[in-house]
Design brief:
The structure holds two protein chains of two kinds.
Chain A (H helix, E strand, L loop, with lengths): L1 H19 L2 H28 L8 H22 L5 H7 L2 H5 L5 H6 L7 H18 L6 H27 L8 H14 L9 H10 L7 H7 L16 H26 L2
Helix pairs in contact in A: 2-3, 2-7, 3-7, 3-8, 3-9, 8-9, 8-11, 8-12
Chain B lengths: L3 E15 L6 H5 L1 E16 L4 E5 L6 H9 L6 E6 L8 H5 L2 E5 L11 H11 L4 H14 L15 H13 L5 E5 L7 H18 L2 E5 L3 H7 L2 E6 L2 E7 H8 L2 E8 L11 E7 L2 E7 L5 H11 L2 E7 L3 H9 L10
Parallel strand pairs in B: 3-7, 3-8, 5-6, 6-7
Antiparallel strand pairs in B: 1-2, 1-4, 8-9, 10-12, 10-13, 11-12
Classes of the chains: A mainly alpha, B alpha/beta.
């Protein structure tokens, strides 16, 4: 485990060295990602220039959702987003190169092709989160601090799990990543807003099927001390870590199933 | 004990394609499933230290076999054992004991200096530091990679990159080395350098080598044994010499006479061309020997000079592929 972590860091450092060779374009991409995501946040500001509350949520509270969603998502995009290229790897036969090395397949893919420019988007999310805290008045307790600290991690794990499951489908249909992206990238957009703005069926999907409501919505209810407009019982607010772990277990099973399919069909 | 054992190995793919006759949008809906037997009951054994050429036309099932030998693909039937392990079940364990070089694909890190790739592989394969240093030094010297170690891989020529890939595949001391078209696209000088390196590797380190190639010079220069497959079936397994004997077909005796003469008549031969005093006599190995033909010619005409043209190995292989030569039973 420790040896794998050390190897992971070694491989990531190698990619930083590689990307640093194209310094100018790297720096530009970093700033590009930073600036582009700000435009995203403008849409939140536009909504609140017309309304004082969105479905019972203030600007500061939505900014909190936005910031926590973004940090979790960008962290996932940074570390597992390269799975978007799996379809191409499968099609070109490059996935074979992963299978001939004495390491786990998912480990090798996650340790390669890291898009460090995502760090730019994460920096932006931090700025938005700071803005959120300047507007909302949180009554800090030990519990709230703990939940706040776990949010980026559990949110990241939920996104990562969804991403891995989605990418696995490319073992069957190499071109399904567009559809998967509508769930991952789309999920990032949808979790930037409170769940209760959506229709009942969409909410159910995000709670039971693709559990993105646990990325930030339920934990945020606790941190911001809000009553759930949907009437979910209070313990659901603390379920995020359990949901994240369960999802990852499912994801790794599905991944193994996908690799087994690849190894029996070869494409 | 054999280091590579393959017995009645099979791989069947099921492919879907438009039903015959269906056109346009209908073709998307009306599809039929078809079984393709990529490898259809292949058996062979390779002893440690052998260097074997694995050849066949495109689509014969060569890569599918290699993929089952490396654990990339799971066989549909039959048995595979490499270094005593079943590849599809012990993929990770086996990966540490085999090396693979794809002529058309690199395993090196494109944007990093060559030495960085070697260093990363050292950790991926958990090569002990001492061994790594010794192996790296040895291969860098043999393949003359010293001046290239700090060059990013993307700036290397194809030949330089191939030398880098060979080193990368050997740093962990594999017992078996698979080479898939290792000389493809390389110029004659580089080809020769790689061949002599492989010969030396096999001789001095006893590495077992299985090589797929379309370049018959690779086989002639390196492999004492070749396995030929086509349509997923084994059609020849044996030495190059024996193959020439069996499938070699016709040889040609070229004679230069003192002066122009009518075609020389020798039993078992046929004059296929006459050009002034030079004549070409074709004969089959099975019918007569070169010595007999030469003696017969000398008895009938005054010889100045002669040469014997052996069939090109490419021609023999082409004949085998095209079905001109009868497949042999190897069991």
């Amino acid at each position: 485990m420790a040896e794998s972590a050390a190897l992971y860091l070694r491989l990531v450092r190698a990619q930083i060295r590689a990307q640093w060779q194209y310094r100018a374009s790297f720096v530009l991409q970093l700033f590009g990602a930073f600036a582009l995501t700000f435009v995203d946040f403008l849409s939140v500001l536009v909504i609140f220039s017309h309304l004082p509350y969105l479905a019972g949520w203030s600007l500061g509270e939505v900014a909190f959702l936005y910031g926590t969603s973004y940090i979790a998502f960008q962290f996932a995009d940074l570390t597992v987003g390269q799975l978007d290229g799996l379809g191409d790897k499968v099609q070109r036969g490059d996935f074979d190169l992963v299978l001939i090395r004495p390491r786990g397949t998912l480990f090798q893919l996650l340790a390669s092709d890291i898009a460090l420019r995502r760090l730019g988007a994460m920096a932006q999310a931090g700025v938005v989160l700071g803005f959120a805290f300047s507007l909302v008045n949180v009554h800090w307790t030990l519990g709230r601090v703990l939940v706040l600290l776990t949010m980026p991690i559990t949110g990241f794990l939920v996104f990562a799990g969804v991403w891995i499951i989605g990418a696995t489908t490319t073992f069957w249909t190499t071109r399904s990543m567009e559809l998967v992206n509508s769930v991952t990238y789309g999920g990032q957009f949808l979790t930037s807003y409170p769940m209760n703005v959506y229709g009942a069926w969409l909410r159910r999907i995000f709670i039971f099927a693709v559990p993105l409501a646990f990325v930030n919505y339920f934990p945020a209810l606790y941190v911001l001390d809000k009553r759930d407009p949907l009437g979910a019982p209070d313990f659901v607010r603390f379920l995020a870590p359990a949901v994240a772990v369960a999802l990852l277990v499912v994801a790794s099973r599905i991944w193994r199933f996908g690799v087994r399919h690849y190894r029996s069909t070869g494409s | 004990m054999a280091i590579v054992e393959v017995e009645d190995l099979r791989k069947t793919f099921s492919v879907t394609r438009p039903r015959t006759g269906a056109r346009g949008p209908l073709a998307l809906l009306l599809r039929e499933r078809r079984e393709v037997r990529a490898v259809d009951g292949v058996s062979f054994r390779i002893e440690p230290g052998e260097m074997v050429g694995y050849i066949g036309p495109n689509g014969a099932g060569k890569s599918t076999t290699i993929k089952m030998l490396t654990g990339i693909l799971v066989p549909s039937g039959g048995l595979v054992r490499v270094a005593g392990l079943e590849p599809s079940r012990r993929r990770v364990e086996l990966a540490r004991r085999i090396g693979i070089v794809f002529g058309q694909r690199t395993q090196l890190w494109w944007d990093l200096p060559l030495c960085d790739s070697f260093d990363l592989l050292r950790y991926i394969y958990k090569v002990p530091a001492e061994r790594f240093r010794a192996n790296l030094a040895a291969y860098v010297e043999l393949l003359e990679l010293g001046p290239l170690l700090d060059t990013p891989v993307r700036q290397l020529s194809l030949g330089q990159r191939m030398r880098g890939d060979l080193t990368a595949a050997l740093l962990h001391d594999p017992e078996v080395l698979y080479l898939d078209e290792p000389t493809i696209g390389l110029d004659v000088v580089v080809k020769e350098r790689i061949r002599s390196f492989l010969a030396q590797l096999n001789r001095e380190r006893g590495v077992t080598v299985l090589l797929t190639t379309h370049d018959m010079d690779d086989i002639e220069r390196l492999c004492s044994r070749m396995i030929v497959i086509d349509h997923g079936r084994l059609i020849y397994d044996g030495s190059l010499e024996a193959m020439k004997d069996r499938f070699g077909g016709e040889r040609v005796l070229v004679i230069d006479l003192e002066e122009a003469a009518p075609p020389v008549e020798v039993p078992g031969t046929r004059v296929v061309k006459v050009d002034g005093p030079r004549q070409w006599l074709r004969f089959r190995r099975a019918d007569t020997t070169a010595a007999e033909v030469v003696a017969a010619v000398a008895a009938r005409a005054r010889l100045r000079d002669l040469t014997i043209e052996e069939p090109e190995i490419e021609d023999i292989v082409r004949r085998i592929y095209s079905g001109a030569a009868a497949p042999i039973d190897t069991h």
